[in-house]
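Re: Re: token formats

Sure, here are both.
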Amino acid sequence: MQVRQFFCPDCDRYFPERLSFADPGKSYTHRQANGVARRWIFDCCSKQPFTEVGALPGVNAKTVERIYYQQVKVRLDLPNRYVAVRRLGIDEIANRKGKSSYCCVLTDLDRNVALEVLPSRSKTTLIAHFQKLGPGFCAQIESVSFDLCAACYAISKRFFPQAVHVVDRFHVVKSLNKVLDTLRWKLRHDQSLVEALKNIKWDLFKASPTVVQQTRLQEAFDYGPLSRNLVALRDDRRGGPLSSAFRVGSQPR
């Protein structure tokens, strides 16, 4: 909607119209920010990415993320929320955009719900929290998922020695993509006259390439068989459609 703008001759300045149903500078109403709508956004976020949830009511993904974690803090007072946890997720989110300030989120991966939002992901904070939860909680954990943070792995081994320690898929795929892009650049630089190696960057990273793009990639792989192996490995970890189409020695489908 369009918000009217007024001019104050005494102050010699312009100011926007104040709305009774929305705060200044916000893209959502009080009704959407509270009550049923807020709980609906929270429930959707447990099954879909923030971007997809935001597209339904027309809300920015960062706003959806903010609403979600505000609801998490409200629901953290629920008793016995740690009792049924068997698979634990440890991750970080930006506390303040652009401020390099991060907090740590503990998640029940089976129920896909947040358990705790810690002020930081430092070793001191995590150690104090797991010591507070006690050995009973630590003994019931069967697997722990985290990113490539060495501190998380060390803490996980210390408090959950009986568990399976897993690096989450996103960071594995991200690392493989980085290696794949470096190799692509090297092949392109060393064999600059080969047409098949030109303009294939986004074909490599696309989750569902078209038949034409798959054909271009197959032609490019003839000049660098290691690329074929990396793509097959990356897509096996990602679970994408190329995991079977680009196995070593296979033909394009």
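Second one below.
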Amino acid sequence: MNSFTNKVALVTGGGSGIGRAIAINFAKQGSKVVVAGRTLKNIIETQNLIREMGGEALSFQTDVSSEEQVKNLIQLTVDNFGSLDFACNAAGVMGSIAPIADTTEADFETVIGTNLKGVWLCMKFQVQQMLKQGYGNIVNISSINGLGGTPFASLYAASKAGVISLTKSSALEYAKSNIRINVICPGAIHTPLLEKVFNETGVTVSQTEAFIPQGRIGDPKEIADSAIWLCSEQASYITGHVMVIDGGESAKC
């Protein structure tokens, strides 16, 4: 997939988990990478990992729920690297694990603000730049929780369902503008977010794996490989697609 060489990729949520794996994978394909996230220490670590392997990377601290910060992020990307060929919106938070009657307005604003508003803002300014260029690829990260109801995580599920609809709608809007927009719905993946769930609920790895047909939790690289493929020329006829990567979990009735 040499179409990535010297191209520019932006990854939000690039400081850990799936976002970090995607950022590193873009670099391995030869792309220049901009790593964005709230936690400066984490995004600098990702930046340095890419540089240590001989790649070119920059990191910019960004709260994706802030329009000003997102707009600035896109401008910094173009100012430093000249274009925006690929964007992966992976920033996300779990929020409180609680029944809906026990959630708060602050919970709503945090989860929806990051997971849904954040993707909307990123896409808004990413698409504006891609329209100027005449091309681009965007991959959003949702979740299998967005495919149905998730008890004790209603806000998270709602935000991820919104990302799916946002992706489909925008893909239709820009299908004739040479901009492809797709979404990945991961299942259980070894990430800090999943560790948070384990720590707060007492659910164990073995209990989780028992519900997954393949019998294991996924690796962030498996999501990253699919994100790269969706951005490649090999996926040139794919837009508005919802790619589920969950070891078969969502295939069960």
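The two ends are 37 Å apart (CA to CA). The mean pLDDT is 96.
- S.
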